[in-house]
Amino acid sequence: MPHTHHSSFELISVSVALICVALIYLRGGGRIRWMRLDRIEGWRAASFLIGLFVIWISVASPLAALDHELLTAHMIQHLLLMTFAAPLIWLGAPGKLLLEGLPKRVVQSVIIPLGRCALVRQVGKALAHPAVCWLGATATLVAWHIPFVFMIALHSAMWHGIEHASFLVTGLLFWWPVIGSWSMGLRKPEWSILLYLFFATLPCDILSGFLVFCDRVVYPVYLSSSRPFGLSPLQDQEYAAALMWTCVTVVYLIPGTIIAARLLSPNSSRQPWILPDAQATTVPRPAEQSMEVV
Q1: Is residue 190 part of a domain?
Q2: pLDDT in tens for each of the 294 residues of the chain?
Q3: Cα separation, 113 vs 239, whole angstroms
Q4: Domain interval for residue 166
Q5: Are 134 and 175 in contact (CB under 8 A)?
Q6: How many domains does the chain have?
Q7: Are 94 and 281 in contact (CB under 8 A)?
């Protein structure tokens, strides 16, 4: 039988970890504001904190208790981590603020030496390549929806945690070329990002189409569910697929439209991207850039 609940220790651990990250971020913002090193817009902090809250909803809220009963709940978790939390966190420009919020001893003894390490910089550069970001997100999406792998995650709390972590990490990688690098003022948007977003919708379309039109339940574990909300397993599967297709299409369309509008604007060469304060954001030092990518 699949695990039917998340232990209190797991839920508390996740909650405490997210609170610590939020406090480090806010401490960094306070230090920057006090030292007048930069101008940090309030909406950035709100975006980052909302992103953390979305992660909490996905993995530590009552929603997490439904993932073994409803495929739709399981799909919502994946979408929250990869499609909503990840871009919200990048919009918060977290790199500089988290570095400023950490104790100086940690930054000087751990973060900066890692950032100066040639191997770490090479790995960071490789991971930041759009092809790697796209392939990582696509591979994660496809792999975890293979029935055999899906069942492993539902039967093991450890693998379920690894599944959630992989969706968040590859979600952050995926959104880095779209939002992350430009939110830090490191590069300008390119037309290729529109193709990047378009091709990213294809695996989701294929998977959701398969789940919608398949005349059988793909994941047998849901055949023995308690059928919350009166949904049959096949209806649940169809709703989960429709939710994936709708959310991915709408969410990817938003940055695609904004990027296209900016690139078509006569002043595109002088305008920052979607972030109005991008020009006011201090470009991180090389070590910070490397760690931001990683």
Answers
A1: yes
A2: 444 456 677 788 899 999 999 999 999 888 887 766 556 678 889 999 999 999 999 999 888 888 889 999 999 999 999 999 999 999 998 988 899 899 989 888 888 888 889 998 999 889 989 999 999 999 999 999 999 999 999 888 889 999 999 999 999 999 999 987 665 555 555 788 899 999 999 999 999 999 999 889 999 989 888 888 888 999 999 999 999 999 999 999 999 898 888 888 766 554 444 444 444 444 344 344 434 433
A3: 48
A4: 8-293
A5: no
A6: 1
A7: no
